[in-house]
Amino acid sequence: MKNLVLIAAFLFSTSVFAEGFRAFECEVSRLTKNQNEELSLKMNSKLTFIEKVRSWSLSVEELELSSYDQHGPAMKYETELVGKNEVGYFFYLDLSLEYELDIDVKTLEAKLYWWGLGERLKLADLGCTLEQ
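RESULT FIELD:
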């Protein structure tokens, strides 16, 4: 019975991440020593990620990435499972991987990474809410 409850809870939490519309509002809860100059993150900085079926946008501090920007650099993102309960969102600019946002589907805790010169640098831990 305990296993059934755990399976049902996991299926419910992952169904929130099914195709459709998602909007995450996140707040920086811990900064790392490695900082990306473009972001200049501070404690309690806000991160917003909105995902629709064929469009998306990510904003944090001065950084605004969006599939709606017709005049910006070539941008795309990919999604994949990066851990037992984590979904990873990978953001590319001009075919170069730039940012990774990993969100835990159970706790909605997130990690923001910057990919610089082929190495992944952790920028911050975040606490998120899922808007529906």
